[in-house]
Amino acid sequence: MSRVPKKIDFMKLALGLDDREEQTVSTIEDLNVYVTSYHGEYPAHKHPKAEFFFILDGELELEFNGQTVVLRKGEGVKVPQGTVHKPYAKSRALVMKIEPVEFPFVKV
Fold it and tell me: What homologous superfamily does CATH list for 24-107?
């Protein structure tokens, strides 16, 4: 008999996080799915593989080479591999991220 997969309440998990905290929600093959609480400025950095941001609540700014992309609730963006980016949240933003399990953070 097969088991029914357990559903995940991302907002419940996200609301329980402190600022700048993240929690792994699931691992699917070689990808981790996270829920993350952003607040404030983060350093410019890059990764050797792509990642994906999806806004659950709030607003997140991502700076790419001097240009800013503003993501609001329900919006997402793929950050291509090797792309320098700098996240910033004026107030708390709750974000689902998908990124490889092996995912080095390289400050620039």
Answer: Jelly Rolls (2.60.120.10)
